[in-house]
Each structure stands twice: as structure tokens, then as C-alpha cells.
Write a structure and sequence with these properties.
It is a single chain. The protein is mainly α and 114 residues long. It has one domain (22-111): Four Helix Bundle (Hemerythrin (Met), subunit A) (Up-down Bundle), CATH 1.20.120. It is 75% helix and 0% strand. The chain has 7 helices and no strands. It has helices spanning 3-6, 17-20, 25-33, 35-57, 64-91, 93-96, 99-111. It is elongated. The N and C termini lie far apart (43 Å).
Length: 114
């Protein structure tokens, strides 16, 4: 069974010593490493793809669908920003050196159209 489906722990980034001394680090790190956190990210990514597709078809921001898509887009941008902050708190500078940080940074920056 693929790692994605069975919820098994994947290989994590190293955690620097200075990060382990931060308040609530152990709880934040456990939450970031939990399967439920990963599943929330997966669902958010799929929802983001669906709503971006709907938004392209309904580019009019004055329609009901356009307003819903814009609000969902804002919420998901906030959600992905919180995800990045939690991972940065959990992994310290190791998260910034990870290749996915670049992908998150580009996608969050592109979402800020207004």
C-alpha cells in the first residue's frame, strides 16, 4: 500500500537543536508530522485545484460563484500560509532549505493577485 494511503510516517526533515527549545515545539512538531495534518493538506490542494478551475470559468467577481471562489481562494491562501508557518516553527531553517518551500513560496505569492 502506498505511503500516502496507509498514513505511515514518512521520513522527516532534521530538527535543529535550537528549534527543540522553543515553547510548544514538541506539540507543534507532533501535529505537523501527524497523518491528519497531511490529509488536511491533500484535501486543501485538491479543493484549491477544483476552485481554481471553477474560478477560471467564472471570471466575473460580481457573480455568486465568482465571490464564493474568491473567498475560498483567500481561505486556502491563509491555510497554506499557516501550514508554512507551522512547518517553519517545527523544522527551523531546515524547512527553508527543503525544495518544497520554493514551491509553496511561488504558489502563495502567485495567489496574491489583489
Amino acid at each position: 500500500m502506498p505511503d500516502l494511503l496507509n498514513g505511515a510516517r514518512r521520513t522527516t526533515l532534521p530538527v535543529p537543536r535550537y528549534v527543540r527549545r522553543l515553547p510548544l515545539h514538541r506539540k507543534v512538531h507532533a501535529f505537523v508530522e501527524a497523518a491528519i495534518f497531511r490529509w488536511m493538506i491533500y484535501v486543501a490542494i485538491i479543493a484549491n485545484a477544483i476552485f481554481l478551475g471553477v474560478e477560471v470559468e467564472n471570471a466575473d467577481d460580481t457573480s455568486f460563484t465568482g465571490r464564493v471562489c474568491k473567498n475560498v481562494d483567500l481561505f486556502l491562501t491563509f491555510f497554506f500560509t499557516v501550514e508554512s508557518v507551522l512547518k517553519f516553527y517545527s523544522y527551523g531553517h531546515e524547512y527553508i532549505t527543503h525544495h518544497m518551500f520554493l514551491v509553496y513560496g511561488i504558489s502563495l505569492r502567485s495567489a496574491q493577485r489583489f
